[in-house]
Amino acid sequence: MKIFGFLLAVLVLFCLGFTWRDVQNGQVPDTKPFAKMFGLKTETHISAEAEFKQAYNRILTSYYRKVKPLELKYAGMSGMMAALGDPHTMFLTPRIAKSFNIDTKANYVGVGARLSPDPLGAKVTQVFEDAPAFEAGLRRGDLIVGVNGKSVAGAKIDDIVEKIQGEEGTRVQISVLKSGKGKPVVLRSRRAHVVTPTVESAYFKDSKVGYILIASVSAPTAEQFDKELDKIERNEMKGLVIDVRGNPGGYLETATELLSRFRGDKVVVKMKLRDGKESYEYTPSGLEHKFTYPIVVLMNEDSASAAEIFAGCLHDYGVATLVGTHSYGKASVQEVFDFRDGSSGKITIARYYLPSTHDIGRKVDADGVYISGGLQPDVKVDFAETLPQELQKNAKPPASDLPDPSFDNQLAKAIQVVLTKAGAKRVSTKSPIPQAVAASSVSRIA
Amino acid sequence: MTPEVKKSLLAAAGVLVCISAIAGGALLRDRVDYGGALAVSPEPRGTLVASNDNNVVPEDKFFEDMMELLKRKYVDGISDDQKLSDGAVRGMIASLGDPNSLYMDADQLRVYMAAHAGRYEGIGADVVLYSESSGKVQSSTSGAEEDATPTGDEKLPKLMIAAIVPGSAADKAGLKPGDWVEFVEDHWLPNSDALDQLRDLQKKVVAGKVPGGEFLKLRKVLRTRFEKSMLPIRGRDRLMMGTDGSINATFVRGAQRIPLTLAKGKWTMRGFGVKDGVIRLPFVKDSADQLKEAIAGKADVTIDLRGNVDGDFDAMLACLKAVAPSGNYGYLVTRKQEKASALALSDGNAAPPKVTLLVDRTTRGSAEIFALALSSKGVAKLSGTEMAGQRYVLRYNLLPSRAGYSLVTAEYRVSDPGIVARAKAEARK
């Protein structure tokens, strides 16, 4: 009798093990796997795979227009990942995966320039320091009208970039129209490993405030941050504005590295993984930089992910004041898995919480309209709607891509806040005059 | 061995068996769920965004492997495979960018199929996505070949009233077919008109004809609207689904804006019927038999095809046989055949009556094909206004989860598109 009791207990435990996955996921144990195990027909007579293949074949053969099989497959993959209802779990086609990879690693083979679309070809919006393109004579404001002797007028920016990029060590001929010159000149540039600058800096002499723009949190970002900080600290510093507006994020490791410049041995985030495990990310110690002046972080709704972690931690550590508008509210961690054909899957694997343990997860209503979430600024200031530059009369091209406090009301406010913190007198800033902050969303690097 | 030792050994063995029972259960579950070893076992570098190199994913296993990867890695765990495959189908259908090929979840499919059979929910109107350029296609660069591909800048589809159930809330409020929907509740349904307007204004500002402030003002209005926008397809659901409460929407007729509050309910569109000698002919299962009975022995017949939206293609063919003699009635352009196949009727009506068809822009889909087929052969004469210009053959496909999708499988042409193409090529020479 006793032995039966024991065997029954073992059986119960076996079942518990079998259904543990469901329990972990907070679901009622599913009977389907049992049925599947004994080869029984489950309620659905056709497997998910079969359903997908059937629809795939039907669309390819029955739809009244020609459909490209590969594009259809990719659309199916995208749809499958979208079905999870998580906007950050997504499929990346080879082309998107490649540019995503370049953006996050900030390291690629090319000539080292940022281009934006232009009817004549591509406009050069930035030439990276020490990059091959700079050596070859390419400058900001140049118009690229041809590559390797062929005109690129009317070509798509992605196609132009593809032509300029190539094997390391090879050369490319770029026909360039310099402003004021009627005839294009031909520049010959090497192709080499280029590290994208993700950090830029400026020093505002009239307010004695330093400014650092972090465009993304990529592999070389912390190192570039150190370099730019070094540059502006040669001046007298009353305060520092760190701008992460429009920063889509990047590596968690890099955010941690950046934060170690401010505080060592501190929790960056608590992560909750799918199996219920928790893990903590700490800043390493001994890398602190001595900041002798107040710091403001400028953010907006397009500051997301690692940029939010950076801003949120500085706030939680009591290091920085947040100015701008609420941030995006992406409280999850993704991993990217590459497939052989060059496509990738970006999958949410964990959720994270900031040191103050609040959840910044973005909430939207059924129609995708923002309800809550993201970091809330200490000083809220909306960006003043301005006229795009090309529509302004007698607009002169700005000297650099960096925002200018006399045209950018959020930056002006950030400077004001940092100076107040420094105990300085209120410095009146000129009333904001419309001017667009360089929109780099359509630009590409080559 | 003392009894104590024996006892503790037994207890230890018991604990071990218990633990292995749990582990064994979990392991077996892994095998059941994942089918043993994974083809993809990526070991990612770094966390927030990271990647590993060169996982081997064979073409034909793409879907399975992606699904397994998601099941292994996704933060919330996935127990419903069907959700993933339904999502994949939704994604594939959406990629066609075709306002007539649509994915529908179980609820939507139920409501829209019932509507085709005349049982409506919502405001009591048939609301369709209408893309102004969807009828116009650009010939591919290969010249005369009729492999038409949509132009890159196809306009955003508008949500348009295609038909109204008599006596419904929509009817009582005075809505008319052809009215289009601009707002549902306070959500804007984006349309190209507004974007074109912005582009025009931008040109004027550049030319110095309009002060820049005007541009800013319009852009701000559009941006505010856009932040609260809704996909037209969702607007359609809001208007056509549900039987309780009411809904606010703004309709546009010409230059006129009509804001309305409409009660939702259940409405029935009259099915087949004969009134004052006019036959109302929906294309559903039994229509052909009823039609045969109604026209038996008559030399002149009038058929009302107004409000006939997205009728069943096979039911339409059966009706065609009932009124038309055997022969060719135009062409169906499909992808499969190199040439268009003829819409050929055998065992048609040997003694056809003279037919008059009442049509307008709510004559759409199968009904429009019916009208064009008959009128092009002189079997019928059309009376009314221009039709919808939607001559597609729609097929519905059901998925295991009771969701489904519609797919355009052919486009109807009155004349052989091959002949037209050849004639064009000749003319070019």
Major sheet characteristics of chain A: 7 strands, antiparallel
Residues in helices of chain B, as a percent range: 25-40%
Which consecutive residue ranges of chain B, at least 5 long each, have pLDDT under 50? 34-58, 133-153
The largest inter-chain interface, given as chain pair and residues per side, is:
A-B, 100 and 96 residues
Helix-strand makeup class of chain B? alpha+beta
Which oligomeric state applies?
A: heterodimer
Using the alpha-carbon principal axes, give the shape of chain B.
extended
Summarize model confidence as the mean pLDDT of chain A.
84
Ends distance of chain A? 78 Å
Strand content of chain B: 15-25%
Briefly characterize the structure:
Chain A is an alpha+beta fold and 446 residues long.
List keywords for this structure.
heterodimer, A: 446 residues, alpha+beta, seven-stranded antiparallel beta sheet, six-stranded mixed beta sheet, B: 429 residues, five-stranded mixed beta sheet, 12 helices, 37% helix
Give an overview in words.
With 446 residues, chain A is an alpha+beta fold. Chain A is 28% helix and 24% strand. Chain A has 11 helices and 22 strands. Chain A has helices at residues 2-24, 32-37, 48-62, 69-82, 94-105, 132-136, 157-164, 221-232, 252-259, 306-316, 409-421, and strands spanning 90-92, 107-110, 113-118, 121-127, 143-147, 150-151, 171-177, 185-190, 192-195, 199-204, 209-214, 239-243, 267-273, 278-282, 295-299, 320-324, 332-338, 344-353, 363-364, 370-372, 379-380, 444-445. In chain A, the strands form 5 sheets. In chain A, strands 3, 4, 5, 6, 7, 8 and 22 form a 7-stranded antiparallel β-sheet that branches. In chain A, α9 packs parallel to α10. The longest helix of chain A is centred in the first third of the chain and has 23 residues, at 2-24. Chain A is globular. Chain A starts with a helix and ends with a strand. Chain B is α+β, with helices and mostly antiparallel strands and 429 residues long. In chain B, 37% of the residues lie in helices and 23% in strands. In chain B, the strands form 6 sheets. In chain B, strands 1, 15, 16, 19 and 20 form a 5-stranded antiparallel β-sheet that branches. In chain B, strands 12-13-14-17-18 form a 5-stranded mixed β-sheet, with helices on one face. In chain B, β4 (138-139) and β5 form a beta hairpin. In chain B, α6 (192-206) runs antiparallel to α7 (212-227). The longest helix of chain B is centred in the N-terminal third of the chain and has 32 residues, at 3-34. Chain B starts with a helix and ends with a helix. The model of chain B is unreliable at 34-58 and 133-153 (pLDDT under 50). At the A-B interface, α1, α2, α3, α4 and α5 of A face α1, α2, α3, β5 and α6 of B.
